[in-house]
Amino acid sequence: MNDSDVRRETLAVTHGERGQAPAPGVEDVVVPVHLSSTYSVPSIDPDADLETLDPDAGEYLYSRLSNPTRNALEHRLAALEGADHALAFVSGTAAIAATMTAVVRPGDHIVAFEDLYGGTKTMLTRLFADRLNVDVSFVDATDPENVAAAMREETALVWMETPTNPLMHLCDIEAIAAIADEGDAVFGVDNTFLSPQFQTPLSLGADVVVHSTTKYLNGHSDSIGGAVVTDREDVLEELTFLQRVGMGSMLSPFDSYLTLRGIKTLPLRMRQHETNAMEIAEFLDSHEAVTRVLYPGLESHPQHDLAARQQSGFGGVLSFELDTDLDGTAEFLGALREFPLAVSLGGVESLIEHPATMTHSPLSQTERDALGISDSLLRLSVGVEHVDDLRSDLASALSVL
Ligand SMILES: Cc1ncc(COP(=O)(O)O)c(C=O)c1O
């Protein structure tokens, strides 16, 4: 049928699009946002396996299963972490949940850093321990011996973050990889705080790396997303099933596009985040109204040597404590102009966060005291603005104390 033979109602739905996917003869420099939720196929295929559709082989049927924009992002994420495979999820939380679900079964045991992102800790206790009969041991992993001591026959997963939030504790990835390996457990590292620009845990022996791409990878505070990177075929197979079918928690095409775009400037941004963070850390460290600064780039940081050894940069996040109480802290925050009070981190803009009343408010006062999260502890995500403007803003706000 020619277009002249079909009615306006049909033209309105189909004209110009049939046969246009993706765009024959057009070589886009930037991967387009492939929003189509479904793809027409040339004919029926009795051998098609929905769970293993390979986008690299042009196998597209339904966007939850495979999508060209997401596929491009997954390739880039894998390459940055030095791996062959990555899967993009709807959030960092979804990436972590899928990874843990891929690895552990009821009756298994997990060894985790006691100082994890609060959401991950809650997931481990309320979902895995309380509902799925998975035992979890939280340990002080700054000393690998504590990880070794917690390992059991049933330990299926060892889970770490380094550096941690907001106390900037580090763990030795290589040493813990050897312990996990010895115990036949999968070793997962949340690499959100440094991004692959400054740390590649797989090269240090980890089996799986996860990211909240919401942070540095996307870098512009306008997308929520997550990723898992691994070369372990057994874990990858489970994760692919969970991402596509078991949970349906894949990243959307538009968020994949935003993250692909953000990653283009990751190396540039990370360098500037680090330069600015180091200057701000040194400035705060020398200020009389500041009692302590937690930044692995400072030689005074107790794990500075480990940071210098296993990282290729110190990152853009630091915490500091004011010589004041909760009221004084609120006054200081109110005097800032360049640091919006907001959770999250890793965007080009600087942010400040008050752990005691924001990210760590679900913890009791006793738990916060035990961890060292006081009412005057603040976390900075240092952005890429001109550092003189950031420093003078902090100096003028500190003068109110
Ligand atoms: C280290 C770390 N991991 C995971 C997450 C969770 O990521 P998302 O908010 O993308 O679910 C966060 C969020 O702040 C985080 O800081």
TrEMBL record:
Cofactor(s) this protein cannot do without: pyridoxal 5'-phosphate
InterPro entries: Cys/Met-Metab_PyrdxlP-dep_enz (IPR000277), Cys_met_metab_PP (IPR054542), PyrdxlP-dep_Trfase (IPR015424), PyrdxlP-dep_Trfase_major (IPR015421), PyrdxlP-dep_Trfase_small (IPR015422)
GO cellular component terms given for this protein: cytoplasm
Keyword Protease set for record: no
Bilayer-crossing regions: none
GO molecular function: cystathionine gamma-lyase activity; pyridoxal phosphate binding; transferase activity
Leader sequence residues: none
One Pfam family cited in the UniProt record for this chain: Cys_Met_Meta_PP
Cross-referenced Gene3D superfamilies: Aspartate Aminotransferase, domain 1, Type I PLP-dependent aspartate aminotransferase-like (Major domain)
Region (Disordered) location: 1-23
Positions with biased composition (Basic and acidic residues): 1-18
UniProt keywords, alphabetically: Lyase, Pyridoxal phosphate, Transferase
PROSITE patterns: CYS_MET_METAB_PP
GO biological process: cysteine biosynthetic process via cystathionine; transsulfuration
Similarity section: Belongs to the trans-sulfuration enzymes family.
This protein's name: PLP-dependent transferase
Source organism: Haloferax volcanii (Halobacterium volcanii)
Species classification: Archaea, Methanobacteriati, Methanobacteriota, Stenosarchaea group, Halobacteria
